[in-house]
């Protein structure tokens, strides 16, 4: 295990191009611990939840690669309440002979734990199957005791292509140049969108589901085949799911959801489109059923995942890579206007341990108010999942 701290003294300020984050006291702002030692295998795409008993549970995928490596499986570990070190790594899911990737943890309104992930067919992301496991007994030691497993089957209908065309028209794409062997971007996607099989496969999770006040669960998912996103909607505590209308733009994937006080749900997306790299935003004003065209914000994005949460004090916090080119930093920003602007930020990584790449954050706020962040951390000694703890009360924006 490796542990480190960022200590900022009272009256010092985190200087950024957007603004200042004054710190309230001299206590450590950000404390990190590696969940397991660095290794040579690829370890990536973590997710974290807090169990009702106060334990923290994390998962990630691990193997010799990603979609083309058949030894990839989902692993996990547990930090018992009050403990200083994470417990042993254990297996969470494995489909023998197929890569298992992009795991997400969620505790539903009935207190049941769900693990969502994809099993990749044909070594192609667009052929992935969205799978889940459920457990009622998950607060002991070791891996959860799974009681049910299945596939989340979605049936986006013909309106998927209709919405795609409407959004492309709104965005006024410039595709005047084309050739028979390289037709315009939207032409190829619209053709694929009219294929029911392609619409129903390849949807992958990356960030936490959002539970609305009425109990509806929104599971954000995306497709590398369509370079687009949507949400899986459940109105029965996660027992059944259906597809929303798509989130369409120039490459909005891996959405992270947050809800404003007026009920608007905001999807913050990774930018997989043309430069400049920017976090993209789409809005839903009908509880996730339909979404506006995804458009660029001012927040840089190097083609990497991010996550947004609403803190209990009403502020919004985003964890992301503050760059258009690389994942060489991990940064937080604070919004006091429900995600409309993010004028204040603080860099958390790199530290002084030689790690150079930080990505795919998973973020929660625990019952005691602490913000917990897990993320991929890579350096000369190898890759691992790092756990960081942040005290948001120290970040004063007035």
Describe this structure in words.
- With 398 residues, the chain is mainly beta.
- 7% of the residues lie in helices and 42% in strands.
- It is built from 3 helices and 28 strands.
- It has helices spanning 159-171, 185-193, 196-200, and strands spanning 3-7, 13-15, 20-22, 28-34, 42-50, 56-63, 73-79, 90-93, 100-107, 113-119, 129-135, 148-151, 204-205, 210-211, 217-223, 228-234, 242-243, 252-259, 265-271, 278-284, 295-300, 307-310, 316-320, 330-335, 344-349, 357-365, 371-379, 382-390.
- A hairpin with a 6-residue loop joins strand 19 and strand 20.
- Helix 1 (159-171) packs antiparallel against helix 2.
- The protein is globular, with a radius of gyration of 20 Å.
TL;DR?
With 398 residues, this protein is mainly beta. The protein has helices spanning 159-171, 185-193, 196-200; strands spanning 3-7, 13-15, 20-22, 28-34, 42-50, 56-63, 73-79, 90-93, 100-107, 113-119, 129-135, 148-151, 204-205, 210-211, 217-223, 228-234, 242-243, 252-259, 265-271, 278-284, 295-300, 307-310, 316-320, 330-335, 344-349, 357-365, 371-379, 382-390.
């Amino acid at each position: 295990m490796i542990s480190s701290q960022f200590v900022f003294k009272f009256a010092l300020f985190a200087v950024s191009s957007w603004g200042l984050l004054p710190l309230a006291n001299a206590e450590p702002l950000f404390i990190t611990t590696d969940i397991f030692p660095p290794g040579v295998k690829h370890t990536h795409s973590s997710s974290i939840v807090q169990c009702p008993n106060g334990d923290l549970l994390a998962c990630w995928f691990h193997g010799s690669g990603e979609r083309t490596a058949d030894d990839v499986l989902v692993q996990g570990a547990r930090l018992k309440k009050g403990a200083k070190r994470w417990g042993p790594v254990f297996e969470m899911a494995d489909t023998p002979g197929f890569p298992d990737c992009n795991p997400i943890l969620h505790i539903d309104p009935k207190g049941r734990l769900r693990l969502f992930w994809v099993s990749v067919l044909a070594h192609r992301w667009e052929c992935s199957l969205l799978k889940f496991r459920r457990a009622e007994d998950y607060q002991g030691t070791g891996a959860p005791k799974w009681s049910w497993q299945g596939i989340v089957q979605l049936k986006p209908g013909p309106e998927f292509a209709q919405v795609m065309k409407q959004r492309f028209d709104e965005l006024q794409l410039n595709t005047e140049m084309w050739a028979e062997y390289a037709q315009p971007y939207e032409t190829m996607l619209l053709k694929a969108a009219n294929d029911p099989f392609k619409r129903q496969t390849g949807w992958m999770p990356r960030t936490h589901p959002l539970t609305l006040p009425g109990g509806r669960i929104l599971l954000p998912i995306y497709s590398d085949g369509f370079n687009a996103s949507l949400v899986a909607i459940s109105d029965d505590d996660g027992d059944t799911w259906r597809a929303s209308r798509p989130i369409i733009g120039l490459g909005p994937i891996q959405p992270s959801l947050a809800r404003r006080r007026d009920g608007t749900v905001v999807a913050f997306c990774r930018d997989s489109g043309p430069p400049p790299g920017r976090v993209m935003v789409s809005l839903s004003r009908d509880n996730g059923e339909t979404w506006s065209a995804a458009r660029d914000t001012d927040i840089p994005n190097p083609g990497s995942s991010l996550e947004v949460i609403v803190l209990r004090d009403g502020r919004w916090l985003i964890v992301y890579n503050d760059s258009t080119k690389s994942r060489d930093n991990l940064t937080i920003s604070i919004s006091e206007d429900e995600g409309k602007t993010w004028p204040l930020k603080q860099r958390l990584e790199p530290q002084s341990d030689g790690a150079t790449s930080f990505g795919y954050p998973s973020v929660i706020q625990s019952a005691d108010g602490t913000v917990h962040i897990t993320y991929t951390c890579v350096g000369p000694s190898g890759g691992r999942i790092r756990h960081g703890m942040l005290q948001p009360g120290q970040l004063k924006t007035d």
